[in-house]
Amino acid sequence: MPNWTGCFGGAGWGMGYGGPIMMILFWALIIAGGVFLFRWLADQSKGSKTALQILQERYARGEIDKAEFDTRKRDLA
To answer: The whole model's pTM is what?
Structure first.
């Protein structure tokens, strides 16, 4: 009968304590990567603004006056 403990450095088939820890770390990285990807994709879809929203923000910051805002708003519509 072969000596299997010699093949695995004395750890046996279960690979000692390192095997379960590495499996937990592996799945934790997979789950964290999925969460990160999901949040990144959700943020990408929120980032697109319409021209009217940008115009309203410029008016709110005082970059353009009421007359220019109305003119550009008419042009967009």
So the answer is: 0.44
Instruction: State how far the Cα of 38 lies from the Cα of 19, in Å rounded to an integer.
Output: 29
- Residue 26 belongs to a domain: yes
- Give the domain extent around 55: 17-76
Measured between alpha carbons, how far is 69 from 67 in angstroms, rounded to an integer? 5
Is residue 3 assigned to a domain?
Answer: no
Mean pLDDT of the 14-26 span: 79
Domains contained in the chain, number: 1
